[in-house]
Amino acid sequence: MAETYNVNPTRMELKKMKTRYANARRGHKLLKDKRDGLMKQFLETVRQNKELREKVEASLQGVYGSLSIAGAVSGPAVLEESLMLPKTQGRLDVRYKNVMSVTVPEFTMEIMGKDGQDSYNYGLAFTSGELDASLASMSAILEDLVALAQSEKTVQMLAQEIEKTRRRVNALEYIMIPKYLATIKSIKMKLDENDRGNTTRLMKVKDMMIKAQLSAGKSDEDDEEVV
């Protein structure tokens, strides 16, 4: 027999168990719908994340290749000196939005110090064109990098929420709801047993009263005959 809750077998407890069972059923359905919605959103976000990651990795491969060539042409010391003092600065703002009841971050990047014409912090006479190309490519993929970080974090948080919701669904489906059903059944059986016991006692008392009345009637008849 399934495990039951330790409650008194009364009609009040039976009513409480039925109410809790109904609430558990409704909660189970809502959590299953939430889990399905989260899975749909998760798969869509994973698809977008995969496409964005492939794009960023391809761009970074080109940037690393240009930097390697620039280092080979100009020398590591010149390359390090050229990139020592950046001319621009970046600021990353974080806001939050709700996705399927999950609060996920939303990143916004702002580049400060860029005058729109020359964002290089080194002289062009002593550096190679590959360095210029690599820095231009890096600037071009900054927004994609920020978007990739946002997508990665969203995927992680959605996966955690899916796992949490899945555990709750399983707890309701395989533990709480069966225990509620088993408890309701146990209380009903005990109440029915008590009702049968009460009925049996009432019938026995009735039989005893009838026998007593019959005995009393017979005694009266005997007294009349003697008189």
Mind explaining what this structure looks like?
The chain is mostly helical and 227 residues long. Helices cover 74% and strands 10% of the residues. It contains four helices and two strands. The protein has helices at residues 11-74, 76-82, 129-140, 142-226; strands at residues 89-99, 102-112. It has a two-stranded antiparallel ribbon. β1 (89-99) and β2 form a beta hairpin. It starts with 10 loop residues before the first helix and ends with a helix.
Helix/strand layout:
Blueprint lengths: L10 H64 L1 H7 L6 E11 L2 E11 L16 H12 L1 H85 L1
Helix pairs in contact: 1-2, 1-3, 1-4
Descriptive labels:
rod-shaped, 227 residues, mainly alpha, two-stranded antiparallel sheet, 2 strands, 4 helices
| Number of E-state strands | 2
Mind summarizing the main beta sheet? Answer: 2 strands, antiparallel
The overall pLDDT average reads 82
Order of helices and strands: HHEEHH
Strand content: 5-15%
Shape: rod-shaped
Q: What is the terminal separation in angstroms?
A: 68 Å
Structural class category: mainly alpha
Q: So how many helices?
A: 4
Low-confidence stretches: none
Fraction of helical residues: over 70%
Radius of gyration: 40 Å
* Major sheet: arrangement of strands: 1-2
Short description:
The chain is mostly helical.
